[in-house]
Amino acid sequence: xxxxxxxxxxxxxxxxxxxxxxxxxxxxxxxxxxxxxxxxxxxxxxxxxxxxxxxxxxxxxxxxxxxxxxxxxxxxxxxxxxxxxxxxxxxxxxxxxxxxxxxx
Length: 104
Ligand SMILES: [Zn+2]
Ligand SMILES: [Zn+2]
Hints:
This protein is α+β, with helices and mostly antiparallel strands. The protein is built from four helices and six strands, in the order E-E-E-H-E-E-H-H-E-H.
């Protein structure tokens, strides 16, 4: 079971793992593209299109250099919703992006 993280806005939520650029988008509202997957624990893993391109160029393998550039952060999954909205990606299919226990 994945441990929840505490968010000041949304309370206890599942964590999401996103690149630093996605975090930036959440903060400044600038779309940087978003590629995501959901792991077995129901956690969103997402990165911007630039990081996705870097990863593809590298045959889909994460290296130390890539990890450094992407600088993956653990953030509140409900907060990640903002990045989906900015990039015009529907979150309808992602149940876990809805804040747990209440309306947004
Ligand atoms: Zn990125
Ligand atoms: Zn949050």
